Amino acid sequence: MTLAERLPGHPFIAYKNGTLHVEAAALPELAREHGTPLFIYSKQWMLEALAAYQRGFEGRDALICYAIKANSALGVLRIFAEAGCGFDIVSGGELARVLAAGADPAKVIFSGVGKTKHEMRQALAAGIACFNVESEAEIDVLNAVALDEGRQAAISVRINPNVDPKTHPYISTGLKGNKFGIAHDRALAIYRHAASLKGLRVVGIDCHIGSQITEAAPYLEALERVLDLVEAIEKAGIALHHLDFGGGLGIDYNGDTPPAADALWRRLLERLDARGFGQRRLVVEPGRSLVGNAGVCVTEVLYTKPGEAKNFCIVDAAMNDLPRPAMYQAFHRIVPVTPRRGEAVSYDVVGPVCESGDWLGRDRALDVKAGDLLAVLSAGAYSMAMASNYNTRGRAAELLVSGDRVTLIRRRESIEDQLRSEQFEG
Ligand SMILES: *Cc1c(COP(=O)(O)O)cnc(C)c1O
Q1: Looking at 321-380, which runs of residues are DSSP E strands?
Q2: 287 alpha carbon to ligand 1 midpoint, in Å?
């Protein structure tokens, strides 16, 4: 396989004249100017990923709510707000972010199992479209908060369809043993209860079965189960204005072949049409599939360290910047920014953090020397958004590239930024 074939972001992330580019920007120049580790995102790639969903929903009443936990940089949110997207948020902090990025609150939905009363008040005041509620207890608390505020909260109940999304256990959410959603067989009783509460207005139903899903089958299975419930709930006299099928569509990390968003939705819409729900308002909550392959993280090789059992390639990015390998043993392709022509050696690519779990890739064939740049691919989702200050490492800078225009959308976090919020005793 040639290097070019291993690049899932092609043509927006590609080699030109032997050097890796994001759109028209050469990565060595960006690294020289902004330092490493450095996240670089292709705007065109994000827009193209969004366009696949838009094509899939052509002629339908659909709202695409970008799940911002995947990548919540304001500069990224602005792209989706300008493209007309709504947003799926999971905290009051995320609400503040989408509003700061110019989101229309009427297109914001609020998911998550642990909303606080304060967050509920914040979202009611902002006038969001819908709370996706996840438990009976939350329904009663939201009702009380809404009555107290003299408002009505629009709600959708998140159903746990008990479908196996065939993904990593930490990112599967629609099985019985998960903390998410309300069991299928409790749903009708809960809808009846919610519909009787004065502080709530039932508007929809939702499900989200997991993340990095690479097949259509789990979606089709969940869809049938949700529609069975919709029929039962509406027969009980409770109208559901919208149907929300969550996010979760996977991306190509390592030769994965998820369906394209438009192809997936053609299949799902066939079933919706067949069961008479094709003209209902549809909501989706994609995160990873809109941003994941649009981003790379550029890192510098600090040292190569030959060992008895293994060779280590020690780079300046670490688990605090790219937590997915340490958290879920996730795979990211790692490629040289300017490939050499020598012989490749097998390395474990590791960061400077003092944990054996601090690795970015294992057994990678690389021809590298100290000072070389590597690009960790598919780093647009659940990377910077999960970054931490572990080992008092400042969080990386983020660049957005559109054609030959480069924007620093987040400056590198300084040590002053980190120390500012702390104080001594007394
Ligand atoms: C995380 C999440 C999403 C987005 O998942 P992706 O796999 O990134 O598409 C959507 N909805 C809910 C409720 C989530 O928790």
Answers
A1: 334-336, 345-350, 359-366, 373-376
A2: 6
Count CA atoms closer than 13 A to 311's CA, side-chain side: 15
Three-point CA angle 282, 283, 286, nearest 5°: 140
Cα-Cα end-to-end distance for the chain = 62
Q: Is the peptide bond before 37 cis (omega within 30 degrees of 0)?
A: yes
What tokens were used for 415?
């040590």
Total domains in the fold of the chain: 2
Tokens in use for 359? 């690795």
Q: Please name the helix (run of DSSP H) or strand (run of DSSP E) that holds residue 246, with its range, or none.
A: none
- Under the phi-then-psi rule, with left for phi > 0, alpha for psi from -120 to 50, and beta for the rest, what region is 305? beta
Residue 359 lies in a domain: yes
Alpha-carbon span 133 to 20, nearest angstrom: 44
> Residue 213 CA: which ligand 1 atom is closest?
7
β-bridge partners, 182: 159
Mark whether 314 and 350 lie in a shared domain.
yes
List the chain residues with pLDDT less than 70: 1-6, 8-9, 168-177
Please say which residue of 247, 262, 286 terminates a domain: 286
Half-sphere exposure of 292 (CA within 13 A, CB side): 22
Residue 79 has a pLDDT of: 98
Q: Which residues contact 171 (CB under 8 A, 6 or more apart)?
A: 210, 211, 212, 328
Distance (Å) of CA 359 to CA 168, 320, 351:
19, 10, 6
Hey, how many other C-beta atoms are within 10 angstroms of the C-beta on 168? 15
Cα 103 to averaged position of ligand 1 atoms, centre (Å):
18
- Centre a 10 Å sphere on the Cβ of residue 363 and count the other Cβ atoms it contains: 10
In ligand 1, the atom with minimum distance to the C-alpha of 171 is: 7
Residue type at position 364: R
Residue 285 in tokens: 């909550």
- The pLDDT of residue 170 is 63
Last residue of a domain, which of 232, 267, 286? 286
d(CA 181, CA 160): 5
**CATH at residue 29:** 2.40.37.10
* Domain extent for 21: 6-42+292-419
Ligand 1 pocket: which residues have CB below 6 Å?
67, 69-70, 88, 111, 208, 211, 246-249, 285-289
Q: How many whole angstroms from its chain centre is CA 270?
A: 27
- What does the pLDDT look like over 127-163, one tens digit per residue? 999 999 999 999 999 999 999 999 999 999 999 988 8
- Index of the ligand 1 atom closest to the CA of residue 382: 8
CB 245 within 8 A of CB 223: yes
pLDDT, residue 165, reads 79
